TrEMBL record:
It comes from Halosimplex rubrum. Keywords: Amino-acid transport, ATP-binding, Nucleotide-binding, Transport. Pfam families: ABC_tran (PF00005). The keyword Metal-binding does not apply. The keyword Ribonucleoprotein does not apply. InterPro entries: AAA+_ATPase, ABC_transporter-like_ATP-bd, ABC_transporter-like_CS, BCAA_Transport_ATP-bd_LivF, P-loop_NTPase. Belongs to the ABC transporter superfamily. This is ABC transporter ATP-binding protein. GO terms for biological process: L-amino acid transport.
Length: 247
């Protein structure tokens, strides 16, 4: 059994039929990349898994640890150990960097009281570890998050997700708007969290960067899966890369 199984999912925004027969597997302990051009359906896939509405999943199933989560509320899904970092950077602008990081604990504690049979297998990272990984945030611990640059806010949003204990971390375009050097910092942090046992589903437009750390990749186009294979297989598949990823 895979950690996450998506079978024949069909998702809609109102009348628009976006995902068509999407089936995917995410294996425990891997970094799985979901790649594709603008508008291919990557974000819609993550939202369909995370229970974020819209879109509406009208057909198919999403199964996590053998449990059908297709129609579950997003809060309940997060309590099961799936953490979703959306594309839009969600930091609390009128709180400091440090307070934003501590907020992860508050959210976690709330989850613990809601989740009756809650049992995370993987601990989140400590604030010390996170600040070591992101020295830029360490320097700005007492700065209001709203005054951080876009890239720094992105780092903070990712750092907060790493802080929570989670078994499956889903990141939507974590490299977007980040300078190459900072992309490397984020890559390092993602690899470290995987080494600690968290499974990662990474949505990226930057296919080259994503293939570097991914074990397996899916490519979507026009709401359907057009490639499934290892990162090495995708690297060797010039046709798929050129046709669907433009690299
Ligand atoms: P990007 O890399 O640009 O974020 P993506 O692969 O994540 O692209 P999606 O955001 O999943 O793409 O969008 C897939 C399709 O669904 C697009 O055609 C988009 O216009 C459409 N879509 C997305 N959100 C909505 C919405 N709220 N209402 C209607 N259509 C939507």
């Amino acid at each position: 059994m895979s950690l996450l199984e998506i079978d024949g999912v069909e998702s809609y925004y109102g009348q628009s039929h976006i995902l068509r027969d999407v089936s995917m597997r995410v294996e425990e302990g891997e970094i799985c990349a979901l790649l594709g051009r603008n508008g291919a359906g990557k974000t819609t896939t993550l939202r369909s898994i995370a229970g974020a509405r819209p879109p509406e999943v009208r057909e198919g199933t999403v199964t996590y640890k053998g449990r059908d989560i297709t129609d579950m509320e997003t809060e309940d899904i997060s309590v099961l150990g799936i953490s979703h970092v959306p594309e839009e950077r969600r930091v609390f602008g009128n709180l400091t960097v440090e307070e934003n990081l501590h907020l992860a604990d508050v959210v976690q504690n709330r989850s613990n009281t809601v989740g009756r049979d809650l049992q995370f297998e993987h601990e989140g990272q400590s604030i010390e570890q996170i600040l070591e990984d992101f020295p830029r945030l360490a320097e700005r611990q007492n700065q209001l998050a709203g005054t951080l640059s876009g890239g720094e806010q992105q780092m903070l949003a990712i750092a907060r997700a790493l802080k929570q204990s989670t078994d499956l971390l889903m990141l939507d375009e974590p490299y977007e708007g980040l300078a190459p050097q900072i992309i490397e910092t984020v890559e390092g942090a993602i690899e470290r969290i995987r080494e600690e046992g968290t499974t990662v589903l990474l949505v990226e437009q930057n296919a080259v960067a994503a293939m570097k750390i991914a074990d397996r990749c899916y490519v979507v186009d026009q709401g359907g899966v057009v490639f499934e294979g290892t990162a090495d297989e995708l690297r060797e598949d010039d046709e798929t890369r050129e046709r669907y990823l433009g690299v």
